[in-house]
UniProtKB/TrEMBL annotation:
UniProt keyword annotations, A-Z: Metal-binding
SUPFAM superfamilies in UniProt: Metallo-hydrolase/oxidoreductase
One BP term from GO: glutathione metabolic process
SMART domains: Lactamase_B
Ranges that cross the membrane: none
Signal peptide coordinates: none
Species, as recorded: Penicillium angulare
Metallo-beta-lactamase domain: residues covered: 14-208
Lineage of the organism: Eukaryota, Fungi, Dikarya, Ascomycota, Pezizomycotina
Pfam families xref list: Lactamase_B
Gene Ontology MF terms in the entry: metal ion binding; sulfur dioxygenase activity
Descriptive protein name: Metallo-beta-lactamase domain-containing protein
């Protein structure tokens, strides 16, 4: 039985979100939902997440799982918001899930942002171990351990579809960066080979798309390509690219990429499973923003 897949593109962060449903039972999972952050006004809003909720409602789905491929650095997770909203609307508790190596990322960023340990407890309902299977209605999904972009990164395989997060992108974009804490180009290469060794007709659903904006190659966002298309056309991975060439290019490229503009806000929320920091001020959440300054200006 093939799943029903609803790809939903969020244009501000250029993120793909997915609703994956069992056609027989109408149970579904939501993958990598986005919580909007307005940098101009430093405000969170729920437009993207509300669209997912309205789609679920219009289709008559029951959300059983909210799945994260990893702790995102470029957008805030709407997992907790969607989970809480559905609960207040009378739906059953949807399980928020991620790979078990999320604890590595949580420890690192708890130290970086002085996050109290209590705010990292029970942030997710379930942590998957590699190749663990679970049910969405009568569909069987498998968690694929795909580290390299981040140590906690994973994908979700269902029939001939894999939701790969930021492991690989569409062929004219390439592959995910590896310069986040715990990222590693050598390990990413291994994860990519695991994906590219799947049957050629397997569809790889990406976590982002960054269509070229020059007139000659401009295109609309694309949610997936097959393994065959990736092997034939991916500019970082196509046939003939060696492991050594990939690692050298990926390392050099990552050195020149600026950090995501929402990284401080995203990491402080996402390691908490989509919850805001416990501290607030006059009804607003308090977040830290780290700034590089000359040592002479540091007071403590």
């Amino acid at each position: 039985m093939n799943p029903i897949i609803h790809p939903v593109f969020e244009p501000k962060t250029r993120s793909w979100q997915y609703i994956v449903a069992c056609p027989k039972t109408k149970d579904c999972a939501i993958i990598d939902p986005v919580l909007d952050f307005d940098l101009l006004h430093f405000a969170v809003n729920t437009e993207a997440a509300d669209f997912l909720i309205s789609t679920v409602r219009n289709e008559g789905y029951n959300v059983t799982h909210i799945l994260e491929t990893h702790i995102h650095a470029d957008h805030l997770s709407a997992a907790y918001y969607i989970q809480s909203t559905l609960w207040t609307q009378g739906q059953q508790h949807a399980l928020s899930c991620i790979g078990e190596n999320v604890t590595i990322v949580q420890r690192y960023f708890a130290n970086r942002y002085n996050i109290p340990e209590r705010e990292l407890q029970n942030c997710f309902d379930h942590l998957f171990h590699p190749d663990e299977t679970f049910q969405v209605g009568e569909l069987t999904m498998t968690f694929m351990d795909l580290p390299g972009h981040t140590p906690d990164h994973g994908g979700y395989k269902i029939e001939s579809n894999v939701f790969v997060g930021d492991t690989v992108f569409n062929p004219d974009v390439g592959s995910g960066r590896c310069d986040f804490p715990g990222g590693d180009a050598k390990i990413l290469w291994q994860s990519l080979q695991r994906l590219l060794s799947l049957p050629p007709e397997t569809r790889l659903y990406v976590g982002h798309d960054y269509p070229p904006n020059d007139e000659a190659s401009a295109r609309d966002p694309v949610s997936c390509m097959t393994v065959q298309e990736q092997n034939d056309m991916n500019k970082h991975l196509k046939h003939g690219v060696s492991k050594e060439d990939f690692i050298e290019y990926r390392t050099r490229r990552d050195h020149d990429i600026p950090e995501p503009e929402l990284i401080h806000q995203a990491m402080q929320v996402n390691v908490r499973g989509g919850k805001m920091p416990g501290k607030s001020h006059n009804g607003k959440a308090l977040m830290q923003v780290l700034v590089n300054v000359p040592k002479v200006l540091l007071t403590g």
